[in-house]
Amino acid sequence: MKIKDLREIIKHFESREYDDWDVKLWDYNNQRNIKWPGGCYGFSKDNKYITFTVDVPPVDGKKIDDRIEQLLNQIRSEK
To answer: Residue ranges of the domains in the chain?
Structure first.
């Protein structure tokens, strides 16, 4: 999505009546809400993109921190 596309969407919600509406992100393939902490973003001026952080529950139940810890333990045990 380009910023101009986002402007086209947002222009319909500029009235104060929408100030308290929540923004939700939807995972279409898995039919579930994606947790958006809101306010978390980063951008790359050189690459011309904005990144919004979301939290998607892993389908196998393993969080990225658990995967990293498991990998580190495996590396340590091989030494």
So the answer is: 24-78
Cα angle 8, 50, 1 (rounded to 5 degrees) comes to: 40
Would you say residue 71 has pLDDT above 90?
Answer: yes
Tokens in use for 52?
A: 């919004």
Amino acid at 25: L
Q: Does the model's pTM come out above 0.70?
A: no
Strand-pairing partners, residue 50, are 43
- Region 40-49: mean pLDDT is 89
50-75 b/e (C-beta count within 10 Å ≥ 16 → b): eeeeeeeeeeeeeeeeeeeeeeeeee
Residue 54 near residue 25, CB atoms below 8 Å: yes
Provide long-range contacts, Cβ within 8 A and 24+ apart, for 35-40.
Answer: none
